[in-house]
């Protein structure tokens, strides 16, 4: 819990409000942050978008992006993060899409994206990681990774990765 408290403290200190756009974690990023007392002051909203149509309608993910790169891609995660940023009042967004339960080598592959306004322009950073374990273990690891990486993501987006 103390590591997640540090995420809330970071957001408070930076005067940032967070929104999430989650596919494979189905709201776990927002739920884990909400476990921290005081987190309500740094949370705007959370989108849970499993279906293709939900990603398109709620976050503006382009069907061509889905067709070209697939649902489990950084390109889709990036469009999810940017779509959430555009559609709500948050300062920073975290998005993910991936396969927590699949056959083959893509099992456990999660794509993350973080977006925010930098010097008046929307910027986005993304990465793909693979997590071991069963479905819900992968989802939990992905949610924690997203939250614990937020400070690093914001640093990268602002041009100072340290």
TrEMBL record:
Domain spans labelled CinA C-terminal: 5-153
Highest taxon, organism lineage: Bacteria
A Pfam family this chain is assigned to: CinA
Cited NCBIfam families: PncC_domain
Name used for this protein in its record: CinA C-terminal domain-containing protein
